[in-house]
Amino acid sequence: MRQSRLQKNGKGSRISLSSRMGIIFVLAMIHPTRTFALLSQLSNTRTYNFAPPVSRVAIRQSESTQCDKRKVLQLSNKRHSVALASSMAPISQSNLAVRLDRPVLAPIESCCSARSSTLWPSLLAVLLSDVCKTAVVAFFLAVSVSLAAKFLSPSAAVGAESGNVGIRGFFQRIKNFFSRVLSLKSKRVQHSTPMPFEGDGGWGKCTLRSKTKIGAKFTVYEFALPKSEYSLPLGLSQQLDFCCLSLDDNVVTGSFYPYEMNDGERGVVRVVVPNRDAKGNAASVGLGSSKFIEVLHDLRPGEEVAIRPGKSTLTYRGDHVPVTDMVYIASGLGIVPIVDQVKAITPKGSSSVKVISVVWINDERGDFDLAMDELEKEYTKYSTKLAVSCILDDVIKNPIEGNAEVDEAVPYFNAGTMAVISGPKRFSEKAKAYLMRKGYPENCVCVLP
After folding, report:
1. What is the arithmetic mean of pLDDT over 257-283?
2. CA distances to 102, 273, 381, 443 from 359, in Å
3. pTM of the predicted model as reported, rounded to 2 decimal places
4. Rounded to an integer, what distance in angstroms lies between the CA atom of residue 419 and that of residue 413?
């Protein structure tokens, strides 16, 4: 009975010993130092059976030496037992590898700090390397040789005299380049200044610059203002009055609308006049302006004429506001102020107008060359808002009501509609009568001179 108990106890001790060996193996894989502490503690138990056999010479050592070793072993066992107790407690992963003198950084921060700390030394090392120095020296040598070959050649000596080639020409080209850049910049930042009219009667002066024909029926005259930054302070569809002396020293005047004045253009003004006989010019622009045209034809570039802002006749006296629909009916030179108005009110947000109808009637096909390109550009940009109808018919001889194209192009009156008529006097009278018969109130129709 006792023997069986011993066998059972022996078996249990073997099981306990094998389990301890498994724990020791796992700890050895995790932390070797703590595993050594565990082995030291187990050395005080029955695990000493696994130690290698002690020789008889070692057993015969002096008792004093053995006593000293036992005391040291007992002291070490106490220390290792404390270490084993702390090692058996659960280890928090957040406390691993944490030092007070080296704060824990996020992966991105640590990576950035490592890169920033090593970037400049690495770059400096590359710049100071022999390869980099050799490349820089070779580059400057190549540039020096090429410049010397260019400037010391015979063609360079010849070009130095003309100023086109060589060192002098090289620096001259650089100077010209920067002067062009600075001049363009100064032109961009230059602001326009309203031209003052301080002469007697509010007159100013301008100088004829050039004449340009449009077809065979019209001529454009371009005048230069006294200063390049001047601009004319004219309102929408406001005429410009001209005055000069005729060949027989008579004072002649004429009133015209500015022609093709681009936005922000300064220092110039253009007008367009007909190239007909005296009777034809009088029928187109009036008797007074036709006399000025005769003097204008004889005017030479560089000669001066007097100018001043004319009357503004674009008014709306209707009862329905705001104006949402604009109807323009023009003939001949009457299209000039109409184009300016279309450019002003078609952009989104520039006015309350939502729909624009332009009806341009001429008796000759060549008259459409006066502003066809401008109207086409505006229609291309604002095709959903602008409608343009160019009709070839002599409405002075023929009645307007009988023209089916005119009836289709001119819309009926609605509340908020304003009509503007511009052209020769006889045409304006017939067009106004036509609109009133179509339902347009008289106070909603504006006739430009």
Report:
1. 87
2. 85, 21, 18, 20
3. 0.59
4. 9
